[in-house]
Design a protein that fits this description.
The complex is a heterodimer. Chain A is mainly alpha-helical. Helices cover 72% and strands 0% of the residues of chain A. Chain A starts with a helix and ends in a 7-residue tail after the last helix. In chain B, helix 3 packs across helix 11. Chain B is globular and about 55 Å long. Chain B has 12 helices and 2 strands. Helix content of chain B is 77%, strand content 2%. Chain B has one domain. Chain B has a two-stranded antiparallel sheet. By secondary structure, chain B is mainly alpha-helical. Classes of the chains: A mainly alpha, B mainly alpha. Chains A and B meet through helix 2 and helix 8 of A and helix 2, strand 1 and helix 9 of B.
Chain lengths: 272, 264
Amino acid sequence: MFSKLQNKLNKYARVVSATWMNGFAYPLSFWMWRLRQVMSIVIAISLWQSIFAASSNVFGYDQAHMLTYIFISNIAGFIVLSSRTIEVPDVITSGDLSLYLLKPVHFFVYWFSRDIANKAQNAIFSCVELFTLFLIYRPQLAISTHIHTILLAFFAIGGGVLLYFFINMLFGFMAFWVPDVWAPRFLFFIIMFFLSGSTFPLDIYPKQLVDVLSYTPFPYLIFFPAKVWLEQLSFSQIVTGFGALLGWILAFGILTSWMWSRAIKGYGADGR
Amino acid sequence: MNTILRYIKLWSLFAKYELLFQLSTHLSMVFFFVGKIIRFFSFIIILLLLKNNTNSLAGYTINEVLIFFLTFNFIDLISQMFLRGVYSLSGKVRSGEFDFFLCRPVSPLFRSLAGSPDFNDILLFIPLTTFSVWYIVQNVPVLDIQHIFLYLFFLCNGLLISISFHILVLCVGIISTEVDNTIMFYRDLSQMARFPTDIYKEPFRSFITFVIPVGVMMTTPAKALLGLGTPFMFIVSCVISVVLFALALKAWDMSLKTYTSASS
C-alpha cells in the first residue's frame, strides 16, 4: 500500500522535476519572464509612492499599508497565477491528448504537478526579486508575523491555487468543443486583472461594487489572501471568506470534472 | 514611388487575407474587442477614482496623467495594429516557413513586421481615438497649432521607436527561435510609460529613458502637447529614435546572416 503510494508520488515528482528543467530551456525567455515580473512590481510601487507623496491617506490606506498590500499581493499573485495549464487547449486541439490518455498518469494530477513546478520556480525567484526591490525602495512595511495569520494566509493562498487551477482547466477543456479558447481566456484575464486585487486593493472601488464582487470568485484569488495576511479582516469576514472560497473550489472542481467526463466520451483524437 | 505603391498594394493583400481569417472566428473577435474595451475604460475609471482622492501624481494633475495614458494607448494600439506579425515569427523560424519570406521578391523585414495586421485593434482604433481626441480638446488648456504639430511629430517619433523595438524582437526571434517573453517584456516595459516617467526612481527612470527608451517613445508627445517639453528634450528624443532605428536595421541584417534555415 505504502510502496504503491510512493510509486505514484515518484511518478509525479518526475513531472515536477521535468517541468522545472523545462522552465530553463530557453534562458533568454526565462530571464525576460523574470524581468516582466519585476517590472510589474516596480510600476505598482512607483505609482503608489508618487500618489502618497501628495496625500498621506488615499482610499483609506496610508503608504505603509498600501505598499505592504502591493508586496503581499505580488507574493500571492506569483504563487496563485503562475500556471502551465495554459497549454491544455493546445494538447487537446493538436491531438496530443491521446498520448496522455495512454500513459499511466491522471490528467488532472499531471497538470497540477506541472503547476507546482512552475509556482515553485516563480516563488523562489520572486523572493529574491522582492528582496532586491525592498533594498532599492526601502518601503515602510506592516507585514504581520503572527504564526496563526501566516497559517491562515497560507491556506487562503492554497485555496486560490486550487481555484485558479480549476478555472484554467475549465477554459482548457473548452477546446473540446470550440477551436479558439484564447479569446474567452483573454477576456477572463482582463476581468481578473481588475477584479482579483493583483495590482491594487479592491476596496478602492465603491463599497457596493466590492459587495457585489464578494459573490464572484475573483477576490478569492489574491485580494482575500492578501487581506488575511494584512490582518485587515474581522473573524466573521475570514470565516465567510473561507466558506466562499471553499464553495467556489467545489463548484469549479465539480464543473471541471463533469466537463472532462463529458468531453472524453466524445473525444475523437482529431489532429492525430 | 513605384516601390511604395507596390508595398501598399501588398499590405492590402495581407490585410485582406488576415481579415478573412479573423472573420472566420468572429466570436473570438467579439471577445477580444470587449476585453480590450474593458481594459481601456477600467484604467480610465481607476484614474478618475484617483482624481477624487489625490490632487497630483509626480507633479502632474490627474487630467494630465490621463493625457499621458491616452498617448501611450494610441502608440500602443497603432503598433499592435500594424506590427502584429512579430508575435508569430518564431513559429515560422522553427517550422522553416521563414525560408519562404527570404526567397520571395518582398522585403522579409516588411513581411515579418507588417504581414499580419490585427483587425481587432483596427476596430478599437476608431472609438478609442475619437474618445482621446475629445478628451484632449476638453482638457488641454492651450491647444494651438504649434502644440498640435509637436504632438503629432513626436507621435510619429514614438512610432519609429516602437518599430525599432519590434525589429529588435524579430532579431531575437531569428537568433533564439523564441520571442514570446521578449515581446511581452517589451510590452510590459512600455506599460511603464503609461504614466509620466517622473514617478519612477533611479535607476529605473534612466533605464526607460536612455537604455530602452520607452519613456521617450510615450511621454515626449504628451509633454509637447501640454507645453512641458524643452528643446533639449525634443532634440534628444529625435536623436534616440534615429539612432535606435539605425541600430535595429543593422541588427536585422546581422540576425539574417546567422539564420541557417536549420528547421526546414
